[in-house]
Amino acid sequence: MRIKRSVTRLFGALVLPAITFGVVAYFGSYAIWGERGVLALEDAKDKLAMQQEQLAQVQGQRDRLAQRIALMQNHPDPDLVEELARSQLMDGAPNQVAIPRTAR
């Protein structure tokens, strides 16, 4: 009878800590490996860095185009007009060779 009582008492004393440990382990693992956990945060930061780099490239291209548009408005820059004409027509004088430039 005493053994049965002591086993029951021991089991009753260990149930609450075991359940608590299980709950903490579940939420702790989700906090690390879950879809919004620490590892997912690192992936999101990497994706954000790549997207910001692409954004910077697109903004640089946009700024260059805005500058060229500003040069063509009101009083067109003669050098720019000649550059555009040569790039569009790829034509020149009879003994002149046109070599296209790569974009900067």
Task: Describe the fold and architecture.
The chain is mainly alpha-helical. 76% of the residues lie in helices and 0% in strands. It is built from three helices and no strands. The protein is rod-shaped and about 115 Å long.
Order of helix and strand elements from N to C terminus: HHH
User: How many β strands by DSSP?
Assistant: 0
- CA radius of gyration is 35 Å
Structural class: mainly alpha
Give the amount of beta strand, in percent.
under 5%
Biggest pleated sheet: none
Number of domains: 2
Catalogue the unreliable spans: none
Gross geometry: rod-shaped
Main features:
single chain, 104 residues, mainly alpha, 0% strand
Quick recap:
This protein is mostly helical and 104 residues long. Helix content is 76%, strand content 0%.
Tell me the layout of helices and strands.
Layout: H1 2-33, H2 38-72, H3 78-89
